[in-house]
Amino acid sequence: MENKNIVVLCGGTSTERDVSLVTSKGVCNALRAKGHKAILLDVFLGLDSFVGFTDYYDVEAALLDIQKRGKDIKNIKKTRKSFLGPNVLRICNEADVVFLGLHGSNGEDGKIQATFDLMGIKYTGCDCLPSAMAMSKAVTKAIFKAYDVPQSNGYAINKKQPYCTPDEMGVKYPVVIKPSCGGSSIGVFFANDYAEFVDGLNACFKYEDEVIIEEKVSGREFSVGVIGYDALPVIEIIADGNYDYENKYNGLTKEVCPAQISDELTKKIQDAAVKAAKALKLDVYCRVDVLTDENENCYCLEANTLPGMTPTSLLPQEAAVIGIDYNSLCEKLIEISLKSR
């Protein structure tokens, strides 16, 4: 790929802001190592001045500046009407392409994608509609049901409307309670009975007004990257306890890639992941999380439209198995995104 001027768009105001910054630092370093003039740009904080895309750029210093300015983000939100920071659209418009290093709301939910479509700005990942559909676990469950994608039994609850208990909906305990549009396992709770269900529901409503209730699948957890409807090798996630935010990022999780499973189960998981991606129209790239029970039945949890892209994230690990190093993967995601448009 010829050298390009690239904005790695990061940060924002979601609960996954910190994860986004780590992802974007890795991507920016990778792209600059490939010869591209890549810069970091916080979508919410923006930049008051921009000197252009230069050969020399200190990624670490730029990240530290973003982190420093981000400490006052709550007060900035109170004084602003626009989500987009100063000069964000102008700088992105000057780039050849924007690598979306965003996670969570106002990043993965199609809003930025729709804005860029109207502005004629090229970006990585899927278009606005599939991004919006996949962001909502409630919508995802409905689409999975319509397209016969295997999933755990469950339903959605809205805080502002009367809701049913798991027993009334035919959902068996233990159950998982999670925000409909959350990510990185933030705000996920588990309940073994009605009392714990009420406590977990109230706790989850602090994150969002819409939550998902699902039967907990006891078994093994896997993840599969899907690029252009082609599945990458399967990775198994082995957590010390529940695979929640704490265990995901504190080193208590082991990841095995390729997963040490039979060829038959590998294909079964990959097929389920591709079927999920096709149902949601995620034709560029995504990562699908899949559970299996003791009988090796597959249950698709969700599709991540902008999966984590630190050098040790799941998608880069899977790509490495088939000979695609981290720096090359970052370029590949840009290439397939530009080709799709």
What would you say this structure looks like, in words?
The chain has 341 residues and is α+β, with helices and mostly antiparallel strands. The chain has three domains: 5-125, Rossmann fold (3-Layer(aba) Sandwich); 153-215, ATP-grasp fold, A domain (Dna Ligase, domain 1), CATH 3.30.1490; 220-305, ATP-grasp fold, B domain (D-amino Acid Aminotransferase, Chain A, domain 1, 2-Layer Sandwich), CATH 3.30.470.20. It has twelve helices and 13 strands. The strands form three sheets. Strands 8, 9, 10, 11, 12 and 13 form a six-stranded antiparallel β-sheet that branches. Strands 4-7-5-6 form a four-stranded antiparallel β-sheet, sandwiched between helices. A hairpin with a 5-residue loop joins strand 12 and strand 13. Helix 5 runs antiparallel to helix 6 (128-135). It is globular, with a radius of gyration of 20 Å.
Relevant terms:
Dna Ligase, domain 1; four-stranded antiparallel β-sheet; Rossmann fold
